[in-house]
Amino acid sequence: GAVVSQHPSWVICKSGTSVKIECRSLDFQATTMFWYRQFPKQSLMLMATSNEGSKATYEQGVEKDKFLINHASLTLSTLTVTSAHPEDSSFYICSAPTSGSARETQYFGPGTRLLVL
Amino acid sequence: SQQGEEDPQALSIQEGENATMNCSYKTSINNLQWYRQNSGRGLVHLILIRSNEREKHSGRLRVTLDTSKKSSSLLITASRAADTASYFCATAQGGSEKLVFGKGTKLTVNP
């Protein structure tokens, strides 16, 4: 089946630095990808919709200057957490809709755990 | 914003028993999906039920949907220790591909 990968799987960084997380669709093209954030023992919160060739669409309350999204190709979307702070520590997960006319379900990446010290 | 509310929040059962998780949602939907998440991992799609369907089966999974009550249930029969995971319902509205997830049920199946 289709696979979505994320890199890195975990990252530790100092406060004030920027961190880039990659999301790749490995055997299918994804014009749209979604970025979620998950706090421990909580559900997924949609942060933004990444659109290939155009600007990302951010959910209410998500700072677009803080979480930069670039969908550079049909198989790659990146999320950059700029000037990271400890409160940005979280589990970040990307997903891409399944291919075909339905596009109802999504393939999820394995997630990236970010710890900001 | 979160659409679904699952209950229970946590469920602990013995291997071989059935596990039932419930999900309620607030707005009209096109479909409702159930996903599974192993600890610290991404989500895996389990089953999708459309708004015009009432029940669906897939292996040991049985999903029901009651649009009048805006609720769904996921039944896992003959549970196994490997079923230990968090289970989330998710809904899609209108023509959007965006999914809104519930809070999830953490299932523990004891061997």
Offer a few descriptive terms.
heterodimer, A: 117 residues, mainly beta, seven-stranded mixed beta sheet, four-stranded antiparallel beta sheet, 0% helix, 52% strand, B: 111 residues, 11 strands, globular
Q: If you had to describe this structure to a student in words, what would you say it looks like?
A:
The complex is a heterodimer of chains A (117) and B (111). Chain A is mainly β and 117 residues long. Chain A is 0% helix and 52% strand. In chain B, the strands form two sheets. In chain B, strands 2, 4, 5, 9, 10 and 11 form a six-stranded mixed beta sheet that branches. In chain B, strands 1-3-8-7-6 form a five-stranded antiparallel beta sheet, with no helix packed on it. In chain B, a hairpin with a 2-residue loop joins strand 6 (55-58) and strand 7 (61-66). Chain B starts with a strand and ends with a strand. The mean pLDDT of chain B is 91. The A-B interface holds A 4, 6, 32, 34, 41-46, 49, 91, 93, 95, 97, 103-111, 113 and B 2, 30-31, 33, 35, 40-45, 48, 88, 92, 97-104, 106.
